[in-house]
Write a structure and sequence with these properties.
single chain, 181 residues, mainly alpha, globular
Length: 181
């Protein structure tokens, strides 16, 4: 068996996110998250037409809605990877924006509910699209490496995962400092 034959197979994260159980779980999370995104996309033009009503909370909500919509666009673009380098990078950027948005939503949920409340488990709902996006990134990288005839390097994906974990820890520390100060 050649090295390329072994690395052309889907990895664990990709197999997990392509399973039927995870697809159902992602669909259920989307039922919770997608209506807010759609409502936000419908109300964005009307809110932007009235600058007197814009405050920090509305702007934050608008950015989260735009980030969520961009993440969903990246997720659906990842089903059919782009042939060009620009399409590949655009898909990765959309997925990264979606991941950052999902981490922000999880932070807001934890901030609103507190760490000791059972309602803080609702922060796991945005974690499902994060795992789905990471699975799509792994798939895109594997397909890109197979098309170029090289072995995919998993180190950047590991760095991305570590960076997301560090960002989540920074959010948690900020929330804790906000509660004490």
């Amino acid at each position: 068996m050649s090295t390329m034959a072994r690395f052309n197979r889907p990895g664990l994260l990709e197999r997990l996110t392509d399973s039927t159980a995870f697809t159902v779980l992602f669909f259920l999370a989307s039922i919770v998250l997608a209506p807010t995104t759609v409502i936000g996309l419908v109300t964005v033009p009307s809110l932007l037409m009235q600058p007197s009503t814009l405050d920090f909370d509305i702007l934050a909500w608008l950015f989260l809605v735009a980030g969520g919509a961009t993440g969903y666009i990246g997720f659906f673009l990842a089903h059919r990877p782009g042939e060009s380098v620009a399409g590949y990078r655009a898909t990765l950027i959309c997925l990264a924006i979606g991941i950052v948005t999902a981490v922000s939503v999880a932070g807001v949920i934890v901030d609103a509910t507190g760490f000791d409340d059972a309602k803080s488990l609702a922060a796991l709902v945005p974690a499902i699209p994060i795992v789905a996006a990471l699975g799509r990134i792994a798939r895109l990288r594997r397909l890109r490496a197979a098309a170029e005839g090289r072995v995919p390097d998993s180190l950047p994906l590991i760095f991305l995962t570590v960076a997301l974990a560090e960002a989540a820890c920074a959010i948690a520390i900020g929330v804790q400092l906000g509660f004490t100060g």
